[in-house]
Every structure is written in structure tokens, then in C-alpha cells.
Amino acid sequence: MSALYGTYARSDLAFERGEGMRLYDQHGRDYLDFHSGVAVNALGHGDPHLVSALKAAADKVWHTANTFTIPEQERLGQRLVDATFADSVFFTNSGAEALECAIKTARHYFWAKGEPDRYEIIAFTGSFHGRTLGTIAAGGNPDYLEGFGPAVPGFKHAQPGDLDSVKALVTPQTCAILIEPVQGEGGVTAMSAEFMQGLRALCDEHGMLLILDEVQCGFGRTGRFFAYEWSGITPDIVAVAKAIGGGFPLGACLARGDVAASMVPGTHGSTYGGNPLATAIGNAVLDRILAPGFLDQVNAMGRKLTWHLQQLAQKYPDHVLELRGKGLLSGIKIATPVRDMVARLREDHGLLAMSAGDNVLRLLPPLIVSEADIEEAMGKIAAAFDAIEAETAANGAAS
After folding, report:
1. Binding site as annotated, residues for pyridoxal 5'-phosphate
2. Which of 33, 89, 211, 381 has its CA 20 to 30 A from that of 155?
3. Which residues are marked as active site?
4. Which amino acid positions bind pyridoxal 5'-phosphate, per UniProt (predicted)?
């Protein structure tokens, strides 16, 4: 019996090494990775630049407290500011912590303005923002709230894509709107540019802040550095994690300078957040993602994946019910129970994918994916559909 909490429905599969787009298990079998550790391994496995940066940082200082200046953190923060809308950055260890910082920053902004009752945040059904008490309340999913007592107050939930449902929830107590430009866990739903622009205009009209959760869809996954860039808007706060560390625990909350101005010593903190080892690796990830041509290639592969998924949908209309997502955050709503499909792909076809809400098969390849990798993955999914059809026919004949 395992000594670990039973919070994960784990496969017995264990990996010993990884190289590029491939993982290798304890028996030497290779798997094509369209999972990326839930969008974390943006540069795949064993990226030489990341490995070199990790080894070099390990020979220096692993950790110091944030009561001291951390040069690698200062450098990474400035580079993120230079590449985005933001003026200020707070580093965390995870996406949930980045969202907690975003929520606290928004509320504290209005408190500092003399509006302490303005703390409510409008979020969306189908969203996922983390597993802390604050972020499960923001997500609003009853399954994640069950058993943990009353939900943290201050969150209302609108329908994604329905601007009128958002307008109906705005009150004098509303301080912000919180949304994933592309929902991941909830079903791989991409918000339209028009909807995102509508949210920005609504925030401007009522003096509210627009908070974006780009933990999964940011850092290049949709073909631009951040997904909000596709809609041409400017957010006030963005939470990021996952790909920012390329596999090392790291997250960040990015904000406009005036929004973050009230977050003075004592208002927030983190023991590990942005320590020397984490931010050295974060800088190495940024070296690769912001290198000339990298995001152009990601965008091209996102279009290739979309095209190949469309071909798959045409060939298997009884299996593929809907295509969703943006770029290399893609989803296939399928007829087969998605958890069964994930297991079949893993065990029978050597393809690592994952599930999302609404019976969606989620595809999250590393950003280094090639068209050959995409074609191989489509072949494996097609083989799984063929096997399901053969089994159904055999069962029908037997009965």
C-alpha cells in the first residue's frame, strides 16, 4: 500500500528518462508525449540548454530568502515586463499561487483606493484556477468544492462567451473579471476575440480589473507568447505557471504598475517563490521561447495540428463530435468515454494524452513538436478509433 495520499488515480506506468518528444518507461518502451506533464514541459524532455542551466545554477546558490536581492529573479522579472503589458512581477511556485496573488492584488488595489467593499470577482463556469480554497471558489466547480466547507465568498460565475450574463452580475462590489482565454481543464474552450474585447470594454466602463489565467494557455502554447495577444486587448493582471519553468516548479503574477503599487512589504510573500535555482531555469526557458522564430514555428505547428484534427474529424464523424481549443492546446470531444480513450492510447498505442471536462480528449504536445510528430499522433488516434469500431462490430456479431 502506498504511503502517499490517494488523491490521484495513478497508472502503474513509471518513466525513467525522456528525450525531446519521447518518454521511456521502466521497460524501455517509448511513448509519444502529447501530455507534457499538463502543459509544463514546453521544451520537451532533456533540452540541452535547460539541463546546462540547471547544472550551472546548482553549482552556485540554490536558495536564498526574498529578504535578499536575487539577481536571476530580477533579470527574469525585467524580461517578462519587457515582453508583456506588465510593469511588476511576483514569483510563485505554482499556478494556484499565482492566481492567489492575482486575486489578492485586485482586492488590495481597491482597498488602497478607499473602496474596501469592492472585492467581488466575476469568474466563469467550466473554469479551473487551482486547488487552494480561494481558487476552487473562483473555479466554482461543485466537485472540487465538495467536502471543504463553505466556499470562500466573493465569486460569481457567468457563462463563457455570453457577455450579457457577465453584465448581469456586475454590481458596485465587483472589482474584477477573471477568465482563462482558453479553458483547459474545463473542456478546452477557446474564447473568441470579440468576447475578450467585450470583457475589456466592460471592465473599462465600470472601472474593474481584467485578470487572465494563462497558467495553461500562456507562454507560447497558442502560438503567441500569451493567448490574450490574439484578441488585441491589454489585461491588468495575468497569472502564469506551468511552461514558465519547463518542468521546474515556478509561477508568476504579472500586473500593471499602478495595480501592484499597494502590494508593499507585509501584504504578500513566498518562501521559495523566485529563488535562485528556479529563476535561473526560468531564464533559460525564456531564452528558448523568445528566440527569433520559435513562436512562429509553434504557431505553424498549431495550424498543422488543427488541419490534421479536421481531417481526423472528417474520417471519423461517429467518434469526433467537436474540435476545440487554440494552437497546441487542442481538444477533441469524443463519443467514447474519454478516460477509457486516454488509457487505450497510452497502453495500446504509446501515445500520452489527457482528459478534460465534457468528455474531451486534450492534446498538449511540447512546443518543439514537429509535423511528423503530429502525423504520428493522428495515426495513433485513428488506430484507436479503428480498434473501437472493430470491437463494436465483433460484439454486435457475437450478440
Report:
1. 95-96, 128, 213-216, 271
2. 89
3. 128, 213, 242
4. 95-96, 128, 213-216, 271
